[in-house]
Each structure stands twice: as C-alpha cells, then as structure tokens.
Request: fold
Amino acid sequence: MDQGVAAVLAALIAVAGVALGLFGARWQTRGMQEQANAAIEAARAQGRDQNAQWRRTVRRDVWVEYLGAVDKFRLSAGAVAEQIADEDLPEAELALEETNSHYARTTDAYRKIELEGPEDIVSKGYALQGSMVNTIFEPEQALIAARSMRVLKEAGEREEREVPSSQHRPIADILTSLHELMAMDSQNPDRTEYGLQLGCQIISLGLLSASDAGALILTYSQRLSLSEALERFPHGRWLRFHEVRTNFVHAARSHLDGAI
Reply:
C-alpha cells in the first residue's frame, strides 16, 4: 500500500470515528433527555396526585361542615314541630327563629361547596337547600295554623255558651270538618276540594284572615293519616328531606372513593 492510499484510509477512519463519536454522543444525549422527560412527567403525575388528594381533603372538610349545619337545622325544625304539638306557641316561635338562623348557616356553608365543586355535589347541595326551604315553610305554616286553631276553639267555646244546642252552630261544624279533613288520606282526590270549601266557610264567617285560613287548611290537609305516619316511620313528613340528604351523602362518598 503506497503512502497516498494509507493517508486516505487514515482520513476515512478518522472521519468514521468522529461520526461514531457524534452519533454516540447524540444517542447518549437523547437517552438522558428521555430520562429527564420521564422524571419530569413522574414529578408532574405525583404533583397531580398530591393536588387531587389535597382537593379531596378540602372538599371533604367543606362537606362535613355543610352536613353539620344541615343536621342542626333539621333538629331545630323538629323542635318547632314538637313545641307546636305541645301547643307551646311562644317556645315554638323561639325555636322557629333559631331554625331560620341555622338555615342561614347552611347557606353560608353551601357557598363553599359552590366554590370547591364538583358540579355533581353542587347540584345535590342545591337540591338539599331547596328541601330545607320547603322544610322550614311547613313549621311556619303550622305555627300560623296553631294560632288560628286556638282562635277557632275560643270562638267555638263562645258559640257553645251563647247558642242553644237546638240551633245551628257553624263554628262547631267547622271544627268537626277540620278533624275530618285531617283524617282523610293524602291520596284522596276529594281532599283538596274539601279543604277549599272549608277555607271559604271560615273566611265567610269572618273568623280568620284569608292568609291565616289558608295556612290552617294547608297544614291540616297535609297532615298524614295514622296509617301513612306508620308507613313512613321514623321520618314521617320529613321523608323527602332525608331522601335528598342521603343523595348528597352518597354522591360525596362516591367522589371521595374515586368513583366520580
């Protein structure tokens, strides 16, 4: 081999060595970049998991606070009903004020749910807020009805003293009709019409205002018959409230378990 060929071969070998060196360096750099990207993605995934865990913890605390306020509201509303049943109207009024305060606290707690989400829990909470509005409406009307019933009973006692038994006693008839209305099954199609007619009779006699008579008829027409009360035991008229509350709890529990 002459010196020219040897020089060419040496040059080619040198070029190939440089190329291989560059290729190896590029491959090594690429591998290091892939490792770095994998490490970054792993760190991001860990960060997402930690953030998700933190969000679940925050949401859980918000939901627990909300349910605590809801349960205090329910107990207070139940106390109103008990005081009305005992005909202790001054205590019922105080309990109703407390119930309104507890509802205001549930509203404040619900605003946190609106901020924290998720939407499924927000919608369940919205339904529960609506149920509480209906729940508080009932004792409010029942309290008005209790006062109105006291007025009717006092008027009936005067009628009994002043009107001979041989004559017509319209107030006595109204009191009897009210008890008949309360005894009717809630599914009876005649119950609404019967209540409307009775309300008109009360108003026409000038015994109560239209709003007070309406509250009285509404309360008596919505009371459960004995068979219905036993069927819905232990929640009775609060059945819908408990159903909506249970829906909220189940949705929250599913979210914490990662199902939603």
The mean pLDDT is 82. The chain is about 85% helix and 0% strand. Residues 11 and 17 are 10 Å apart (CA to CA). The helical segments are 3-85, 89-116, 119-162, 170-183, 190-204, 210-222, 226-231, 239-256.
